[in-house]
Amino acid sequence: MTKIKLECHEANHICDKNQYKEANFWEKVKLTVHLIYCRACRKYTSRNTKLTKLVNNPKVDAMDRSAKEELNAAFEKELAKQQ
Amino acid sequence: MPKHVIDPNQWINLYSDYLFNYTITRVNDREVAKDLVQDTFVAGLKSMKNFKGEASERTWLISILKRKIIDYYRKINSNKGKAEVRMSYSGDESEGDWLEERVADPFDKTAEDTIENTELGMAIHDCLGKLPEKQAKVFKMKTLLNFETEAICNELDITASNLWVIIHRARTAMAACMEKNWF
Predict the structure, then answer these.
(1) For chain A, what are the domain ranges?
(2) Location of each CATH 1.10.1740 domain in chain B
């Protein structure tokens, strides 16, 4: 935990975690430092953040598991009837 | 043009989220949306022989779904709309919270916002559909359904670092795809 310089793949990993607010403070510091001098990771981070913003839009939705299972069960029944 | 084939066994897997997202932006109720999607699949199954293969399966299902949504609105309007007496106090002796009702609702979305959001949902699901199955699944669970990392790992029987690699690949692909289609 002592080194401050990150490899790019480590920086990307922290950036991914940060999109889900799972990076801790020290990791965020290291990421910020890395971004100061690494252009590629800056680019990755900005795209990643943009994606997060889009996906967190309230209108983007998916079915939860239980609903999907119910749907699947009902559909299987119909499918069996057809064949 | 290649002829499209129909394979109902894959429908749920491939299209349920896409159709659901399409519906939820139009009816605003998860339960209703779920029922409508289910109705659509059943209806699709019943009229499978009418599928000519001119459009893709998904387009065909969406066109059924559109009918279902219209039917749904017709139904709720015919039952409730007739019984309801709408009153407003526009006369001089108006009472009630008329002032509040006249103020523009700051949380009200403009039509443009809504349209944009609808299309955004579609665009994201389009891109999701292009990912390899496993990546799409993990990304969906993690990002859209907000599962805990551990829960996903247990369910799919993968390690945490495994999961983060999958997430990383999915995010890179999604970002590229959205950049192309959305911005």
Answers:
(1) 8-82
(2) 1-83
**Residue A26 DSSP SS3:** helix
CATH of domain B1-83: 1.10.1740
The stretch B106-135 carries a mean pLDDT of 71
Which CA distances in Å does B78 have to A50, B26, B31? 44, 18, 20
Measure B28 CA to nearest chain A CA, in Å.
Answer: 10
Q: Provide the token pair at B133.
A: 């199955």
Q: Is the pLDDT of residue B42 over 80?
A: yes
Instruction: State pTM to two decimals.
Output: 0.61
B chain contacts of residue A42, beta-carbon cutoff 8 Å: none
Q: Which residues of A touch B122 (CB under 8 A)?
A: none
Evaluate whether B170 touches B136 at the Cβ level (below 8 Å).
Answer: yes
Which tens digits make up the pLDDT trace of A24-63?
Answer: 898 999 999 999 999 999 999 998 888 888 877 765 666 6
Query: How far is it, in rounded angstroms, from Cα A1 to Cα B4?
Result: 56
CA distance A83 to chain B (A): 11
Contact criterion met (CB below 8 Å) for B6 and A43 = no
Q: Which fold has domain B113-183?
A: Arc Repressor Mutant, subunit A (1.10.10)
User: Does ipTM top 0.90?
Assistant: no
Tell me which chain B residues have a C-beta less than 8 angstroms from the C-beta of A46.
none
Q: Greater confidence, B170 or A4?
A: B170
Establish if B140 touches chain A: CB-CB under 8 angstroms.
yes
C-alpha separations of B142 from A16, A58, A67, B179 in Å:
11, 15, 17, 21
Q: Which two tokens stand for residue B157?
A: 């029987």
